[in-house]
Amino acid sequence: MTELDDIDGLAAEYVLGTLSREERLTVADRRAVDKALDRAIGAWENRLGSLVETVSPVAPSPNLYNKIRAQIGLSQHVISLKSREQALARRANRWRNAFAGATALAASLAGVMVYRDAIVPQPATQYVAVLDAGSDKPAFLLTVDTKTNMCVITAVNPPKQSDKTYQVWMVSDKMPKPKSLGMMNEPGEMQAMPMQAGPEMDLFMNASFAVSVEPIGGSPTGTPTGPVLFTGKLIQATP
């Protein structure tokens, strides 16, 4: 037997896997420096590789995992491969169903919100009263935000009064007399009034508003004494 025969036989055993662990390690180290052995191993790998493709895969026995665990001393915790697969499948299904349910719920809620916003009118929170005498330019604006319970009165373009002042009034048939909301005179002047939700706000929202000309310091009687020049009522502001 020649050296080449020995190399070819050794290569065949290496590829077939019949060598012991120590022998395989020795051959692997030798292959790195022995070109003849490396070529022989490559030839056997090519020769046997095509045969591997013709062999149908064989599934291991379901109890193989248990036997291996038992042989290495883990028999007290043996779980069959089938049981492990079933447990993993159940866990995956739970997560999948939970995710699908959450997705469907989110989609449903989004649909409800879109439908509600599109079909059901949302309550208005912004209202405005334009206080004028029928001209194109408002003299005063009164705005109400029912979300913040705040009223703001703005002098927009009132005619100048040299020795008089303007006084804003709230008028309602549910009150014994008009209620003063303050005095203003200069264009751009603003007054903010916090309000309380409930009956006070309801009364305010349904009242009428008027502006009279009064002496400096306001009406001496607590009711309008001079001419009422501007009036208006609250209407819903355009969004």
Name a few traits of the molecule:
239 residues; alpha+beta; Immunoglobulin-like; 3 domains; 5-stranded antiparallel beta sheet; 6 helices; 41% helix
* Lateral strand order in the biggest sheet: 6-3-2-1-9
Mean of residue pLDDT values = 76
CATH-defined architecture of the largest domain: Sandwich
Beta-strand content bin:
15-25%
CATH class of the largest domain: Mainly Beta
Q: Return the structural class.
A: alpha+beta
Oligomeric state of this protein: single chain
Instruction: Evaluate the radius of gyration.
Output: 47 Å
In total, the number of domains comes to: 3
Overall number of strands:
9
Unreliable stretches covering 5 or more consecutive residues: 75-79
User: What string, H for helix and E for strand, traces the elements in order?
Assistant: HHHHHEEEEEEHEEE
Write down the overall geometry. rod-shaped
Major sheet, described briefly?
Answer: 5 strands, antiparallel
**What is the helix fraction of residues, given as a range?**
40-55%
- What is the terminal-to-terminal distance? 101 Å
Give the CATH topology of the largest domain: Immunoglobulin-like
